[in-house]
Amino acid sequence: MAFIRTKRVKGILYRYRVESTRKEGKVCQRVIEYLGRATPKPGKRKPKAKNAVKAARASVRKAASKNVRQAARKVARKAAKTIVQKAAGRAKTKAKKGGRSKKRE
Questions:
Q1: Which of 51, 85, 87, 100 is the most exposed place for a label (fewest CB within 10 A)?
Q2: Residue 35 neighbours by CB distance under 10 Å
């Protein structure tokens, strides 16, 4: 069964139609036909799969960290709000106690 193989030689990709054969019990590839260069023209290069995967991972990390930061901000706001409310409540109770309690002579 023949298949197409891409081979890189000095940074340039070439395509070959090859088939698998056995020689002395080992599998090797026999070139049936040379198909030519596979490297696209410099202006029309597609991004490499590795770069696309890296970019996708980076965008996922960025989105995740953004969500984490937003969640942390919400928690911090809630905590600050409760602290302020507790402090205000303490101030009110102190004011009430201070107004009620009078020293007896």
A1: 100
A2: 13
Print the domain residue range for 71.
47-93
In b/e form, how buried is each residue of 57-67, taking b as 16+ CB within 10 angstroms?
Answer: eeeeeeeeeee
Convert the pLDDT of each residue in 30-59 to its tens digit.
999 898 888 665 665 655 566 666 777 777
Residues 41 and 2 occupy one common structural domain: yes
Q: What is the total count of domains within the chain?
A: 2
Longest dimension (CA), the chain: 117
Question: In the Cβ-directed half-sphere of 101, how many Cα atoms lie within 13 Å?
Answer: 6
- The mean pLDDT value of the chain amounts to 76
Residues forming a β-bridge with 83: none
Residue 104 structure tokens? 């007896």
Read off the pTM: 0.37
Residue 1: DSSP 8-state? -
Same domain, 1 and 33: yes
Element (H, E) at 78: helix 49-100
